[in-house]
Every structure is written in structure tokens, then in C-alpha cells.
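Appendix B. Chain record.
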Amino acid sequence: MPDLQTIGYEGCTIDSVIRTLRDAGTALLIDVRAVAASRKPGFSKRQLAAALDQAGIGYVHLQGLGTPKPGRDAVRAGHPERMVPIFREHMTSDRAQAELAQAKQLARERRACLLCFERDHTTCHRRLIAELISDETGQPVQHLLAPLSASSLPAPPPA
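C-alpha cells predicted for this chain:
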């Protein structure tokens, strides 16, 4: 059974994310954002799906695995620990359970990678989804990091 992967695109370009996915042998990207829109070029649902298709990587959006708005607000406010109980409660819903079952099946069939925004998987709900999948399937989880774009790197100190 293939490893289960996760990736966040914060601070990255679409090209660096796709290159990282290809290098890792990803066959399918599972978008677990509640809102698959982004101000970041290339990461809105249609653009992302098209770029992945060109790279030979499948795409599926499982919106029901996204974090509800109160959980997203908690993370934005710098309190990812508040997101966890909100997300766990959300995961008891019928839709979330159905889409989790779908994600588990997809992850068993081919090397899949869960995508969300946050670069650090420890502050993102995709870590929780990966744990739920891995607990049942026994798949090891690999958290991928795409290179940061030059515009997101800190400026060098003055000379």
C-alpha cells in the first residue's frame, strides 16, 4: 500500500508544489479545503486541477473534509489548538464521514496527497485527516514541503 502524503502551499508557487508532488510520486491530490479558492495564483480549484492534469496527477476536491469557518478563523487568529475540537466535531457529520470513507479508499488505491494551505502540518487539519486515514489503513504518513518562493523568504539582514 502506498504512503499517504500531505502538503501545504503557503509561501509556495504552483510550480514548486507540482514539482514536489511529481518528485514524491504522487498520483492523486485530494484537496481538503472547505473553500477551494485562493488569492494565490494557481491554487483555485479549476486552475489547480488543470495544472495537475498537465503534470499527470489526478485531482479530487472533498469539501466535506474542510475545516468549518470557526476553525479557520481560530487558525488565522493564531490559535490552531482551538481548531482541533471544532474540526473533530465537524467530522461526526454524515457528509464528513462519507468523504472520509472516500478518501480512505482513494488512498488505498494510489499514492494520494492531502492538500491544504498551511505549510506547517502541525497547525493544519490535514494532519488530523491523515491520522484518521492512517489509523484505519496502516499507511505511513509523509508530510511534504515544497520550496518557498523567493517572495516569501525573509529579507537578508542589512550589510
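Further analysis of this model is presented in Appendix C.
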